[in-house]
Amino acid sequence: MQEEKPKQLLHLVFGGELSDLSAVEFKDLESLDIVGIFPDYASALAAWRGKAQQTVDNAAMRYFIVHMHRLLDPQN
Predict the structure, then answer these.
(1) Rounded to whole angstroms, how far apart are CA atoms 24 and 47?
(2) CA distance between the termini of the chain
């Protein structure tokens, strides 16, 4: 019997300094911090929390989790 692998639900974690705190517009696109691509939400959330904690003193710095699996397969 073949063991079934869990479905990959890819998530991207990235961040950068916002130019305006009321909108999601980055001050400098070339300095975005691409943390990585993760195989599930739990590991992406752990990476997001770590980066958010490291930059807690900079109010303009924001990190985001993008659900890449939703972009790759929008019908599911």
Answers:
(1) 20
(2) 27
Q: What are phi and psi of 32, to 5 degrees?
A: -60, 140
29-51 pLDDT tens trace: 999 999 999 999 999 999 999 99
Give the residue carrying structure tokens 């079934």: 4
Residues 6 or more apart whose CB falls under 8 angstroms from that of 21 comprise 59, 60
- Which string of DSSP letters, residue by residue, matches the chain? -PPPPPPP--EEEEEEEBS-TTS--BS-GGG-EEEEEESSHHHHHHHHHHHHHHTTT-TTEEEEEEEHHHHH-TT-
Please give the model's pTM, rounded to 2 decimal places.
Answer: 0.84
